[in-house]
Amino acid sequence: MTEFRSAVPLPHIPDDLSIPQFIFRSEYPGRPTRPRNTPLFIEDGSGIVTTYEQAHYRAYGLANALSIKWNIGPCSGYFAFTISHTHTGTKDYATVIWAVQILGGIVTPANPNYNAEELQHQLSVSGAKFIVVHSGCLSAAKKASDTCGLSDNFLLLIDKIVVPGNLPSIPALEDAISFGWSKGENYGAVRFKPGEARKTIAFLSFSSGTTGKPKAVAISHYSVIANVIQMAAHYRLGDPDRSNRTMVPGDVVLGVLPFFHIYGLVVVMHYVLYAGASILVVPKFNFADFLESLISHQVTHLYIVPPMCVLLAKHPAVKGRKFHHVKFCMSGAAPLGGDLMAQMAILFPNASIGQGYGLTETSTTVSSLKAGVRMGTVGSAGELIPGIVARVVKPDGSLATEGERGELVVTGPSMAMGYFKNPAATAETFVDGWVRTGDEVVIKNLEVFILDRIKEIMKVRGFQVAPAEIEAHLLLHPSVSDVCVVGVPDEYSGELPLAFVVPTLEVLSLIKRGDTTENDVKQAIAKHVSDAKIHYKWLMGGVEFIDAVPKNPSGKILRRILRDKANTMKRSDFRQTMPIKLAKL
């Protein structure tokens, strides 16, 4: 066998619906029926719920306002928004997404922790013409939008506050929704002809791909809808016997993963709502509050990442608490070890526990915990879901059979369209309808086992980090002559960036004369990154001096050599020697 695919049949996937039509169209064949009293969203802390009717009201009201006041529509350009995870109304993430997509606009979700430079890159690449932003992110958004030439008239606040005098007065989302409903219907909701949903962009979600700076992955309406239906088939949501379904209406799903990340965006937001369950929206992760919320809201399903699993397994605050109501726990975005899985099984005695795997480029899930099993296979990233076809390509280009290792290459209905306006990067990853994942795997019994990362990208707390981006910034530092950044394994974060630096002759002379110390130089180099980059790109793995960066005859960095070196080094706790800004991460 050289191609691997699930034996579970894949239901029909409509290619003439927008994502909002699909979500609000409750009569789709095989979709669980949501009782009227089952909320879509529950705000953690306040307990305020958003019903189907309220979500519909807010999305369509905002769509009317966006059409009247800002002329948002299929030909008006693209749309970006960033929302602070400290805001208790993050249920409106969905409101904004659906309102824009109702009009045929495109959404490019942004990380709320991005600084102005990082946000500017996203705005420039996506061509965004309008920003919805939380007040906590307004300063960075304003700087980025000014640099990109966007007017203040094209900013909308997700929350309603008094803006400081040094910032412009900006309308608030709540006022826009009220305005939209106070006016006659001005817009025509987008209607696709058969096949159009396959080629119409819904999201520009950013990913580093296999190399380089983050790129905009063009994800169609059809891709998201397809992945939701694929997961629904995998987990038997249409089974007449409720006891066979993994999720049923009335279940409460933890919404702690960021909605700007493809995992939270597709799996948590769209799949969970399609399944008829409620999302408990947790605006900011605080572990003590997180534990209280699990119990007070009787959460049944957890979609989390390995750092959260480490805390659940080891934090003393967990001791004595009972979580018998949890019936499903899925970890994704990075590998989860067998010991952690065993501890999670003790903590959640009634839950199915396992892992899933997916990419922004596959929008989203490729494999997931088998339906109906108590514990996933240790080391497995789950079973291929219906509709996914997988190949394992060996270094010589031949196809591996079951149990042989090679690069995972996949295709299926949910594959993204490519990298937006980047044909060169698209050609590297999207080949004749197949997506090269850059991950070395073995497939056995349709389960995917991730062995190594062929691509250079690191995974830090579930976020992609391109070594080349950090290296380019480090080369600007006067003490750095050459550099190679690799990821080192970390139980909590998955990987941590470590920089192997070739110091300049000048700085070596200063150290030799005693005018500075090696540790001071390393701290200055680390601070150079922490001052300019988002926190998960900081050099928490350390800075090591080397004589030369190993390269092949053509000048390409032999990264694997230094990665192997990093994995065998006996290191002291780097956090204790880093500047206070790093130590507090």
UniProtKB/TrEMBL annotation:
Q: Which segments constitute the AMP-binding enzyme C-terminal domain?
A: 469-556
Transmembrane recorded as keyword: yes
Q: Which InterPro entries match?
A: AMP-bd_C, AMP-bd_C_sf, AMP-binding_CS, AMP-dep_synth/lig_dom, ANL_N_sf
Mind telling me which residue stretches traverse the membrane in this protein? 252-274
Residue span, AMP-dependent synthetase/ligase domain: 37-420
Give the molecular function GO annotations.
CoA-ligase activity
Q: Which UniProt keywords apply?
A: Membrane, Transmembrane, Transmembrane helix
Q: What is this protein called?
A: Acetyl-CoA synthetase-like protein
Q: Which organism is it from?
A: Hypholoma sublateritium (strain FD-334 SS-4)
